[in-house]
Amino acid sequence: MGKQAAKRALPDNEAKAVLRMVRISPQKLNLVAQLIRGKKVETALADLTFSRKRIAGQVKKTLESAIANAENNHDLDVDDLIVSEAFVGKSIVMKRFSPRARGRVGQIQKPFSHLTIVVRQVEAEAAKA
C-alpha cells in the first residue's frame, strides 16, 4: 500500500513550470515577468528572444518548459496557450562583506529569486478577442 496521489492543484486547462534559486534580485526578475504576463505564448517567446535583459534567456527557457509540460503532460493545444500567470518570489540572500575606510565594513547582499510561469489554454475565439 502506497500513498495516494496528491490532487492536482491547477485546473485541467493549465500547466506550469518553476525556475528556482536564480541569482538575480526579485525586482529585476519581475520586470521581465511583467513583459510576458497575459500574452500569447508565441508573442511572449518573441519578446523574450529580443529582450536586452540578462535574465531573459532563463525566463524563455522556463516558458518553453511550461509549454512542453502543457503539450506532453496535459494534452493541451500549443496554439491556444496564453501566459496566465508569471510571478516572482523571494529566496535566500547571501551576505558578503567588503572592507571600507577606517576599519569599517560594507555589507554586500546577493539575492536569489524563484519564478513560476503558468500557461492556460483558451478557446480560439476568446484568444482573438
UniProtKB/TrEMBL annotation:
GO molecular function: rRNA binding; structural constituent of ribosome
InterPro entries: Ribosomal_uL22, Ribosomal_uL22_bac/chlpt-type, Ribosomal_uL22_bac/org-type, Ribosomal_uL22_CS, Ribosomal_uL22_sf
Biological process (GO), any one: translation
Entry keywords, A to Z: Ribonucleoprotein, Ribosomal protein, RNA-binding, rRNA-binding
GO cellular component, one term: cytosolic large ribosomal subunit
Pfam family of the protein (one): Ribosomal_L22
Annotated family: Belongs to the universal ribosomal protein uL22 family.
Name by which UniProt lists this protein: Large ribosomal subunit protein uL22
